[in-house]
Amino acid sequence: MNCADIDIITASYAPEGDEEVHATGFNYQNEDEKVTLSFPSTLQKGTGTLKIDFVGELNDKMKGFYRSKYTTPSGDTRYAAVTQFEATDARRAFPCWDEPAIKATFDISLVVPKDRVALSNMNVVERRPYPDDESLVEVKFARSPVMSTYLVAFVVGEYDFVEARSTDGVLVRVYTPVGKAEQGKFTLEVAAKTLPFYKDYFNVPYPLPKIDLIAIADFAAGAMENWGLVTYRETALLIDPKNSCSSSRQWVALVVGHELAHQWFGNLVTMEWWTHLWLNEGFASWIEYLCVDHCFPEYDIWTQFVSADYTRAQELDALDNSHPIEVSVGHPSEVDEIFDAISYSKGASVIRMLHDYIGDEDFRKGMNLYLTKFQQRNAATEDLWESLEKASGKPIAAVMNTWTKQMGFPLIYVEAEQQEDDKVLKLVQKKFCASGPYTGEDFPMWMVPISVCTSEEPTCAKMQILMDKPELTVVLKDTKPEQWVKLNLGTVGFYRTQYSPAMLDSLIPAIKDLSLPPVDRLGLQNDLFSLARAGIISTVEVLKVMEAFVNEPNYTVWSDLSCNLGILATLLSHTDFYEDIQVFIRDVFSPIGERLGWDPKPGEGRKVLLGMGAFRGGGKKKGQGVWGGEKRAGRLSCGVGDKRSGI
């Protein structure tokens, strides 16, 4: 079994209805984090009880069972004991079979100082004095459902809490450092709204009697979805009602939405093996936005998704050293390598595209089929595709395999020709590369769900097609010569679009008069800058379109635009054109600068645009890597500020 940093003192096995047999040897394979127990004779097959008496270490590694240092309001330094087991660190707390597919129920008891809070996945069923020491108590928790070891959790420390009941009767508590209960109220409000939303969305009830969300002082990740006891770094949970800005509230709401989604997708149904981790994280990274949009429609959160996740994933996936979303994991030590922006942000983006392709109703039906069929079990990516295929009647596996099993994404070139009252569109797909036009010997191809809208109805698709070949010609009926045509309504499809010069020119008035929605304006300018940086189109074409953004009122669009102009200004520094680009940028920014002024006005939002790009801190889940997808912390962000960056 798995075992790390643990010394076993004795072990015995008692077959059901038979005598106990004591182990005679313990062979530690430290490199593989395993121990083999040897017995004097062959153990009989069947049910029995394995008892292990062992000593472990309350470590300082911020993984396994570790100590977290905090300061009390009076200035004393103290320690809490907390856990972080994902991916493979339950074995540091107790010997176990530490793999996601080996599930069990857990009966947990903790012996703790009587003045400390003790928490675990389940509710407390008994708290009694510890017979050997009157300063201690034994806290016994209810038996958990069948679950994976990486989701087990326990916390011992000093905390205040605020509580509420969700509309479906689940007790929700938010635990904060002592004296900061007030700062847990926003998270409590979000969690109490989120649980019923997911229950209705999946049509599957939350399976535990309670959920605790707790702020941990020393936490390597941003948050961890332990079933019934979700742990967070303090910046991902606490909101000061007087001083926290809008972006902090939005980030906390997204992290809460993400971790609570895992209570169903990940905890109730768990990936078979770490190869399918992308689906676990990509799905939660998408649905967190759906949830926040439901709870706080005023946040305009989907426009921010495009800036924070979608475009970031495209930047990385256009590089020659990218990797497919789905990566085979051999040894568990490889797991941390795939906690990256491709798993999280590209994963979330292709799930968003899939949801749009299927339609919300059939997507929900498919999700319910999947969660009902595999609850308290394990599943692979293909099992979800099968359920969604059954619900929608569409070729989900064939489509999605082109997005998850090969790296990169397509560039769709489009040109239009007027034929009487119809427009004929010719589409060509090629792999998009940041280093320039693709010249590889193979011709990767994607099955691309493409939506087309026109100036007649900019927010509705006039046509939806599945492009399953390199070139495609389609006819848009009843589209007048003066009407503009745009691909990728809502910037949902994970591809870049290159328009013919005539089509691009026709879109400029729609940017200027704002008839093109914000998320489409953002996607269009981001595509243009990327195409120019890759040497596929001229920067002059991009700047001609940028002039149309003088009336832009949307923060997120400005944020992405300012970042892209900043990159261009940096490239032109120390050249003869630097003064000219500065004048151009001032001309673009002046109208919005004059409208906003320097002083806040009543009713204005509290976001801040910093110079040539926004900066945000945080870290959503696991802390490694240079950019913060959920499991990592840390990037200087261009755009709205990555929801998951932590520096």
UniProtKB/TrEMBL annotation:
Domain ERAP1-like C-terminal: 484-605
Pfam families: ERAP1_C, Peptidase_M1, Peptidase_M1_N
GO biological process per UniProt: peptide catabolic process; proteolysis
Protein family: Belongs to the peptidase M1 family.
Catalytic residues of the enzyme: 259 (proton acceptor)
EC numbers for this chain: 3.4.11.14
Protein's name according to its UniProt entry: Puromycin-sensitive aminopeptidase
Signal sequence region: none
UniProt-annotated site: Transition state stabilizer, residues: 344
Compartment(s): Cytoplasm
GO terms for MF: alanyl aminopeptidase activity; metalloaminopeptidase activity; peptide binding; zinc ion binding
Requisite cofactors: Zn(2+)
Cofactor note: Binds 1 zinc ion per subunit.
A cellular component term, taken from the record's GO annotations: membrane
Residue stretches making up the Peptidase M1 membrane alanine aminopeptidase domain: 186-403
Superkingdom: Eukaryota
Binding residues annotated for Zn(2+), in chain numbering: 258, 262, 281
Gene3D superfamilies in the record: 1.25.50.20, 2.60.40.1910, Neutral Protease Domain 2 (1.10.390.10), tricorn interacting facor f3 domain (2.60.40.1730)
Catalytic activity field: Release of an N-terminal amino acid, preferentially alanine, from a wide range of peptides, amides and arylamides
Keywords assigned by UniProt, alphabetized: Aminopeptidase, Cytoplasm, Hydrolase, Metal-binding, Metalloprotease, Protease, Zinc
Residue span, Aminopeptidase N-like N-terminal domain: 1-151
Protein's organism: Cyanoderma ruficeps (rufous-capped babbler)
